[in-house]
Amino acid sequence: MTFLTLFVVIPVVMLLALWLARNDSQVRGVMVVGSTALLALAIYLVLAFVNARETMPAEQYPFLFGTAIPWFEPLNIYYRTGVDGISVVMLLLSSIIVFTGTFASWQQHPMQKEYFLWFTLLSVGVYGFFISVDLFTMFMFYEVALIPMYLLIGVWGTGPKEYSAMKLTLMLMGGSALLIIGILGIYFFNGQFSGQYTMSVVEIAQLHAIPAFIQKIFFPFIFIGFGILGALFPFHTWSPDGHASAPTAVSMLHAGVLMKLGGYGCFRVAMYLLPEAAQQLSWVFLILTTISVVYGALSACVQTDLKYINAYSSVSHCGMVLFALVMMTQTACTGAILQMLSHGLMTALFFAVIGMIYHRAGTRDVRKLGGLMKVMPFLAVGYVIAGLANLGLPGFSGFVAEMNIFVGAFEVNDTFHRACTIIACTSIVITAVYILRVVGKICYQKVADESFFKLTDATWDERVAVGGLILCVAGLGLAPLWAQNIINDAVAPMIHHIMGTGAVAGM
Fold it and tell me: Which of 77, 163, 256, 266 is the most core-located residue (most Cβ within 10 A)?
C-alpha cells in the first residue's frame, strides 16, 4: 500500500478524533492538525511526482505510486490507486481548500463538531476519488462525497436550505444513476469483447475492445452523469441554489473541489475509455457547453445576491472546462485542467469573502451593500482580487487558464468549432461587466447604511483563509509553468489515445 492511501486514512483518523473531541477547542485543533497534514502530504506528492517523472520517458503514461488490493476478485474489483499530473494538481487543490475552509469555519455554530464531521467525510470522498484508477472505487468515493452535502446544506445552510439540499441531492443522485449504467456497460462489454473483465481504467484503455456503436450508447450516460456535477447545461439548476444556501466552507469545497469531479470524470472515464464515441458525439456536447459558458455569464449579470452571482459565474467557468475538453486538443485540455485548478482557488476565495461579509452585514444583496472598502478594507480587497482573477486579468490564475483554452479551441480548423469558440469568448466581456459592476457598487460607492460603520474587518482566522487563497491565485498566475508542465505531461498521452482512433467528427 503506497502513501497515497494516507489521503484517505488521515481524514478517517480525523473523523475518529472529532468524534472523541469534547469541546470546540479540541475540534478546531483536530481540524488544523489534520488539514495541515493533508496540505503537507499534497505538497510532498507534487515534489515526489515531479522527481519521479524526470526519470521516465514523456511518451509513457504511468499512474505513479500505484497499488492494487483485491476487494471482490470474482468481478475483478480492486482498490486500485495511482496518480498522474492531473490528479496530483487536483489533490493539491483539495488540500488547499480543506485547509483554508477550516479557518473560514473557525466560528461555525451551532454544532461545530457535527459540522466538521460531515465536512471531513466529504473530503474523504473527494480525496478517494482523485487517487482511484478503478471504476468501482471511483464511483464509491464519488457517492461518499455527495452524501454529506445534503446535511451540510439542510442543517447548517441559510435561506431555503431544505429545498436547496433536496434539489441538489436529487439532481446529483440522478447523475449517479446514469453513471452506474455507463460504468456497468463499460465493464461488461469490455469483458465480452476482450475476454478480460476488469474495472481498471488503465487496463480498459489498453484493451480498447468496446466497439464504436456500443461506445455511442454508453458515452452519454457517463458524460452527462459527470456533467451534471460539472454544471452542464441544462442540468445546472441545482448549482446556484445549492451554493446560495450552503455554509461558507461548504460552498468553498463544493464549488472549489466537488464540481471538479465532474470535469475530471468526463475526461478520465467518458472520453478516455470511450474515444470513438467522444469524437463522434463531441459536437452535441460542444453546443451544450457553449451555452453553459455564455448562459452562466449572462445569468450572473442579472443577479442581486452575491452568492448567486458567484454561483452562476461558476456555471460559466465549469462549462468552460467541459467546452475545452470536448475540443480535444492538447492545448485546450491542458487549459481545462488549469481552469479547474484556477476556478477552484478563485471561487473558494469568492465564497469565503462573501460569507464573511454576510456574517457581518446580514445581507448579500448588492443593492443594500456599499462602501465596504472603507468599512472592512481587507475583505474588500480580497473580493476585488477574486473578481479580477475571475475576469481573467493577466497576473492571476484565470488568465493563464483561459488563454490556453481559447488558443487550443481555435486550433480545431473547421467553421463549427471556431464559431463556438468565438461565441464562448464573448463570456470574457460579459464576465467583466458583472464583476466590475458589483465591485464598484459594494466596494467604492458610499456606505449604504450608517450601521455599517460599526462593522469589523476580518479576524485572524479569516485572514489566514483569505490570505492563503490570494497567495495561491496570484502565485499560479505569476508562475504557472510548473503546474502547466505537470498537467501537459498527463494530458498529451490521453489526447493521443483519444485522437488515435480517428478524426474529430463535425456536425
Answer: 256
Choose among 468, 74, 491: nearest CA to 268: 491
Per-residue pLDDT, 481: 87
Distance CA 355, CA 434 (A): 19
| Grid cell digits, residue 93 | 487543490
For the stretch 30-51, pLDDT in tens is 988 999 999 999 999 999 888 8
Nearest residue to 299 (alpha-carbon basis) of 231, 361, 217? 231
Residue 253: its H or E element: helix 248-253
DSSP state of 365: B
Helices (H), 330-391: 330-361, 372-375, 377-390
Name the pTM for this structure.
0.90
> Are 345 and 459 contacting, i.e. CB atoms less than 8 angstroms apart?
no
Which amino acid is residue 101, in one-letter code?
Answer: G
Round to whole Å and give the CA distance between 410 and 261.
26
Looking at per-residue confidence, does 61 or 277 come out higher? 277
> How many residues in total does the chain contain?
507
CA distance 47 to 390: 28
Distance (Å) of CA 327 to CA 46, 113, 336, 366, 483: 28, 45, 10, 37, 21
Q: How far is 31 from 103, CA to CA, in rounded Å?
A: 9
Residue 76, phi-psi category: left (phi > 0), alpha (psi -120 to 50), beta (remainder) = left
Mean pLDDT of 201-212: 86
Cell 473527494 belongs to residue: 126
Tens of pLDDT, residue by residue over 292-330, are 999 999 998 888 888 888 888 888 988 899 999 999 888
CB 397 within 8 A of CB 317: no
Beta partners for 77?
A: 72
Q: What is the model's pLDDT at position 57?
A: 58
- With beta carbons less than 8 A apart as the criterion, state whether 230 and 262 touch: yes
